[in-house]
Design brief:
By secondary structure, this protein is an alpha/beta fold. It folds into two domains: 145 residues, Response regulator (Rossmann fold, 3-Layer(aba) Sandwich); 127 residues, Rossmann fold (3-Layer(aba) Sandwich). 39% of the residues lie in helices and 18% in strands. It has a seven-stranded parallel sheet with strand order 1-14-8-5-4-2-3, with helices on both faces. A six-stranded mixed sheet has the order 10-9-11-12-13-15, with helices on both faces.
Length: 385
């Protein structure tokens, strides 16, 4: 291994990571590091143990040596979707911490391959210092390779390809992936469904865009554990909020007598389940993904029985830090694959997510959220690996 930059080495020593697996993963980029651990370590690495450096970091100035031209580009497949508001807050906070320019955000609002490829080409032409992109299908293979061939580091976030028979098809030669293990999160969803609908029966799983790598693996994972006693219908809802709701209402009304459960694998489809169930008068268990305010309200009311959280804030924060540290260290700090977790929220534990914050996208204010006092007996974050 080459010599590590002295500032990076100092941060590692401050974290008491002189010789342990986490240190080796951070230096070598091997293995899968939990997002919570990576965030804590890298946040600490951005400031020194000395009071002088701590004061500098708290003012949003970078204590590391200057690294020129650190302009990053974030490509996205749903770039107007409110789900990614915490992601944008995440990268905004990271660049403020490091004293870097704001990243450029763009891509497609409708998962259009041509628009996402065009954004990648724009970033490459602009000689971006780094690119973060979801990989929802094979169309990203060539632009990611072109960027890497041009010396531009690329990390993926939120989605990293598709799965065939449970086996990931990565497609790209990216440096690392930051996000949820999507097929495994679908399997976790399947286990929740088996608990809520014991013995099998007819269920529906709503999905905004069937076939795309950001959500199709969840459906596939759920079906893989449900078995033949469940008759599962996959119903497309689109990425348009009003269309999602009307599609769900129509399906629930049309299958009111036989349906035993309604579930969803994306944020918008899950968010509309509460209204769809209430307006149609069906009384069946429901669940899905993410923390849209409507989903949280449904959890509070008990209409939604579970929702699986993937931490979109960290999907903006960590890629930014990883790209910066890769460039700072001359490539010695290759970013690790990082799991942003699988947290099953229920009516019993959702209270921890109800405070409006940048971390959930409900508030732009910078604030310290006080943790509940007493023992931590129901941790929010768990791994999906």
């Amino acid at each position: 291994m080459g010599k590590v930059h002295p500032k990076v080495d100092e941060a590692i020593e401050t974290l008491n990571m002189r010789d342990n697996p986490t240190r080796r993963r951070l230096l070598a980029g091997t293995g899968l590091v939990s997002a919570a651990g990576a965030a804590s370590a890298l946040l600490a690495a951005c400031s020194s143990s000395s009071s002088t450096h701590a004061a500098v970091a708290s003012n949003g100035s970078n204590p590391f040596p200057a690294v020129p031209n650190q302009k990053y580009y974030f490509n996205n497949h749903a770039d107007t979707n409110e789900f990614f508001t915490p992601t944008k807050y995440g990268y905004s906070d990271a660049v403020a911490l490091l004293g870097l320019p704001a990243p450029t955000w763009g891509g497609s609002a409708t998962s259009a391959d041509s628009e996402m490829v065009s954004f990648m080409n724009t970033a490459i032409s602009a000689k971006a210092a780094g690119i973060a992109t979801p990989v929802i299908d094979s169309s990203m293979a060539t632009p990611v390779k072109n960027a890497m061939d041009a010396g531009i580091p690329v990390v993926t976030y939120n989605a990293d390809g598709i799965y065939k028979n449970g086996v990931p098809q990565i497609y790209t030669n990216r440096l690392a992936y930051v996000g949820q293990a999507l097929f495994l999160s679908g399997q976790a969803m399947g286990e929740q469904i088996k608990t809520l609908v014991p013995g099998g029966g007819e269920i529906v799983i709503f999905i905004a865009t069937p076939g795309t790598g950001n959500i199709q693996p969840r459906y596939d994972g759920a079906v893989s554990v449900l078995g033949s006693s469940y008759h599962v219908s996959e119903v497309a809802t689109s990425t348009v909020d009003g269309t999602e709701l009307s599609t769900e209402k129509s399906y629930l009304l049309g299958h009111k007598g036989s349906l035993k459960g309604a579930f969803a694998v994306d944020s918008g489809s899950t968010a509309n389940l509460t209204a769809a169930i209430k307006s149609t008068g069906v009384s069946i268990p429901a669940g899905g993904f993410d923390t849209d305010p409507r989903t949280l309200s449904g959890l509070q009311a008990g209409t939604i029985k579970f929702s699986i959280f993937q931490d979109p804030y960290l999907q903006g924060f960590l890629p930014t830090l990883y790209l910066y540290l890769y460039n700072l260290s001359g490539g010695q700090l290759a970013p690790p694959d990082t799991d942003t977790g699988l947290t099953v929220l229920t009516p019993g534990n959702v209270s921890s997510m109800l405070k409006n914050s940048r971390f959930q996208g409900g508030s732009s204010a910078q604030q310290h959220i006080q943790r509940p006092s007493g023992p931590i007996n129901q941790p929010v974050g768990t791994t999906s690996t």
